[in-house]
Design goal:
Chain lengths: 236, 222, 329
């Protein structure tokens, strides 16, 4: 390396024309290599787009089925910035998504929503089932996390922690613009109210992240679900 | 990096090509002999599936980047060679990232950031600089394949010990029934270090023994 | 010579633990010693080194390892612990005199990380039939999971034992244990850590015969006492009293027999005090603020790790500085 990058003054000086020519050559080389690389990436991207989406759809469907036992039919809605909802054909949607699940006779079992927030290591992504009839969260699953094994990743398995989400109160307030009580994470063993999340001792940061994620998501999305409930119930 | 520097040979015989392949697989094994690429070796070998996936992804990147770099080796100026190599390597890492996502999302999530980090795996840039930039396309391809398979082999060695002891299973299939006591330690980072150290010990003890054997044989022959 | 006297000093503690926990403790001691001695012998043979089994250090490692484990710890796990203690903790570093860490604690740390559930399965002291039957977990088949002991404990316990040591009860239930039973040692815990009184007497024997540096246990125990007293005075409801800290768990055994490992501790007079004080501090911090009920093992291992540095920092400077000061005066 050092031999090739010596300053030109140290050796016999090259004529400036030759140097310019070599710069042009370098740029030409880098340009053409970049072009080839870009083409390769675009080709791969285009050809893997469909399988990737299909994989993600399968995983999503399985998760929804897990959170809403007995589900037979699923409809995905996208929430527009205006608060309107529309049926989505594919998962590819940047805004919030609602996964409505229906049983065999077409009755609404519940709506699965996404919630995420920053944990200890990276963003923790979760999904939860909301039952409009009970006004409560009835199921919860962590779909992506990079927390410490043995500590933070207890939020995926700790039975007492997961029991929080079998019936977590997320009632709406009187004018239906937000939840009546924010979902709050409390220290392990001090849960008193049905809207509180009992943290895992030793995994407080991860537990709090889950609480924050659910709070944000329920406050933003549950009023929209309730406003459009008649449409969601019919599945249109 | 103590890598072998070979002169630019215009054509390769079949024997030489095979040597390029077995060199990486065994004599110059990237993990057990050169002790390169330790980051993925320690980080993603807590199960056989993850180890195999990482090994295959790295092999793919190695073969493709070695081939392409060997193709353009005569055109690359010395001043921009590292930049060119990294550009090519990063391209193939991006491609392998999409491919894994298309094949299996759980594997993609298990490997996480380590797929993107293949870019900085020094085995790949090491082979580009030390081999592909000086040798013919065919030989470079075989060299990449040998190194990649050697890397995958080493990762699988670690992954199987860690999964068998740490979870009592192989590729997710339980081996010993429900009464088996898992050694949790082996799924955690210290287990990675201990397993790697044990493999290195076995490998170097075996090498020392075979070296002694050939010396004895040569003495007898002389 | 020293080594043999350490074994003598450990024997009363072993005898007490056999009396307290029965034949399971005896089997555990035998398995640990056998595994350590065998490992040392085999490694010497394979490596073509002179046999070092006769120096009794492997026996000490085995005894100490078994004394720090729960009495009903599965024998096969004890044997693994012995293999790791001598193989990884001592022989890989070059044998006796070169070990960076106390070998017995290396073995225990491995077991703690590998089998976190088995190593916290404590059984009651003075169980009925303890000299006639093994604790069921002791005879677990190799590589198998030990049984859950809840039912067995119900049958053999003599008082209201819940399967927890005084330290665990303090940590998780804030239930205090009286200091006197702790001092005498008829409580649940690891096989050899329960009786503070006996450990003090055995340690005093070694100190009296000048086989042990008294400053290390003195520094470690007094630092643990002072730090925990500070916590206790600040919040008496939340933290146990300092005497409880001194006499519970493995602090006494660790301070007397493991922190004093001659190879892994500093040699300078000031360094020894820093080393002991640091270990006492870490023990209390782990016990009070960490997630684990007991921290002696990690405290000693950390102390071992920094002891070369302590030696480096203390030795030359202090000497030079004092000379200069003396010259000025």
């Amino acid at each position: 390396m050092s031999a090739t990058t010596q300053s030109p003054q140290a050796r016999t000086p090259k004529p400036p024309a030759a140097e310019a020519a070599s710069s042009v050559k370098m740029i030409r080389l880098m340009g053409s290599v970049s072009l080839i690389c870009g083409l390769l990436i675009v080709t791969t991207y285009r050809s893997t787009l469909v399988p990737i989406q299909r994989n993600q759809e399968i995983i999503m469907k399985e998760t929804v089925a897990e959170l809403l036992p007995g589900v037979e039919k699923q409809v995905i809605y996208g929430v527009q910035p205006s608060g309107e909802i529309s049926v989505l054909k594919s998962l590819d949607y940047t805004g919030p998504r609602l996964f409505a699940g229906y049983n065999g006779s077409g009755a609404l079992l519940g709506v699965v929503l996404e919630a995420s927030d920053r944990g200890y290591a990276d963003v923790i992504r979760t999904m939860y089932a909301y039952s409009p009839a009970k006004q409560a969260i009835t199921g919860f699953k962590v779909v992506e996390l990079k927390e410490t094994p043995g500590l933070g990743d207890k939020i995926t398995s700790d039975p007492t922690f997961l029991a929080n989400f079998q019936n977590l109160d997320v009632r709406l307030n009187a004018d239906k613009t937000s939840t009546a009580h924010p979902v709050t994470t409390v220290k392990h063993g001090t849960k008193k109210n049905p809207w509180e999340v009992d943290a895992i001792s030793g995994a407080t940061i991860s537990s709090r992240a889950v609480g924050r994620a659910l709070d944000k998501s329920t406050r933003d999305l549950l009023p929209i679900v309730n406003r459009n409930l008649s449409r969601i119930e019919k599945g249109e | 990096m103590a890598l072998i520097h070979e002169p630019d040979a215009p054509a390769a015989s079949a024997g030489e090509s095979m040597e390029a392949f077995f060199n990486g697989l065994w004599n110059q094994n990237p993990v057990f002999v050169q002790v390169l690429g330790m980051c993925p070796t320690l980080a993603v070998t807590n199960s056989v599936r993850n180890a195999l996936a990482m090994g295959l992804a790295t092999t793919f990147v190695l073969v493709c980047s070695n081939t392409l770099i060997s193709m353009v080796r005569k055109l690359v100026q010395k001043q921009v060679r590292i930049a060119t190599y990294i550009l090519i390597i990063a391209t193939f890492v991006t491609i392998v990232d999409y491919l894994i996502k298309a094949i299996s999302i759980p594997v993609y999530k298990a490997l996480g950031a380590f797929i993107a980090l293949i870019v900085v795996n020094c085995i790949i840039l090491g082979r580009a600089e030390a081999y592909a930039s000086k040798n013919s396309v065919g030989k470079s391809m075989l060299d990449g394949l040998g190194m990649g398979v050697g890397f995958a082999f080493a990762l699988t060695c670690l992954g199987s010990v860690r999964e068998i002891l740490g979870a009592g299973s192989f590729l997710g299939i339980p081996l010993f029934g429900p009464n088996f006591q898992p050694w949790v330690l082996f799924l955690l980072p210290p287990g990675g270090f201990l397993t790697l150290a044990t493999w290195l010990l076995i490998f170097s003890a075996w090498k020392a023994r075979s070296k002694r054997k050939t010396e004895v044989l040569e003495e007898i022959a002389a | 010579m020293i080594m043999r006297n350490v074994v003598y000093a450990l024997l009363p503690i072993c005898a007490f633990s056999v009396w307290l926990f029965g034949i399971s403790a005896l089997a555990s001691l035998a398995a640990a010693v056998a595994s350590c001695v065998l490992t040392e012998h085999l490694i010497c043979r394979i490596g073509g080194r002179p046999a070092t089994v006769g120096d009794f250090s492997a026996v000490i490692t085995g005894l100490l390892l078994a004394l720090t484990l729960p009495p009903g710890f599965p024998l096969w796990m004890t044997a693994v612990g012995g293999l790791i203690a001598v193989g990884l903790g001592k022989m890989l570093f070059g044998g006796l005199g070169f070990n960076v860490f106390n070998p017995a604690l290396v073995g225990r740390a491995f077991l703690q990380a590998a089998f976190p559930i088995a190593i916290t399965a404590y059984t009651p002291a003075m169980a009925v039939n303890r000299f006639l039957e093994f604790i069921p977990t002791t005879l677990t088949l190799p590589f198998a999971q030990p049984l859950v002991l809840t039912e067995w404990i119900q049958r053999v316990r003599v008082d209201a034992f819940s399967g927890a040591t005084p330290l665990t009860m303090q940590k998780f239930d804030h239930a205090a244990t009286d200091v006197m039973p702790l001092f005498l040692g008829k409580t649940a815990g690891s096989a050899g850590e329960t009786s503070a009184l006996l450990i003090l007497l055995c340690g005093a024997y070694l100190i009296a015969r000048k086989f042990m540096d008294w400053r290390i246990p003195a520094a470690m125990l007094s630092s643990a006492f002072v730090v925990s007293a500070a916590f206790y005075l600040a919040a008496p409801a939340q933290y146990p009293n300092p005497l409880f800290v001194l006499f519970s768990g493995g602090l006494m055994l660790g301070a007397m027999f493991m922190a004093t490992d001659m190879v892994a501790s500093p040699v300078t007079p000031l360094g020894v005090w820093i080393y002991g004080g640091l270990m006492g501090l870490i023990t209390v911090i782990i016990r009070f603020l960490g997630g684990l009920p007991e921290g002696v093992m990690y405290a000693i291992l950390l102390g071992n790790a920094v002891s070369p540095m302590i030696d480096n920092l203390t030795q030359p400077r202090i000497y030079g500085a004092r000379k200069k000061e003396a010259a000025k005066a």
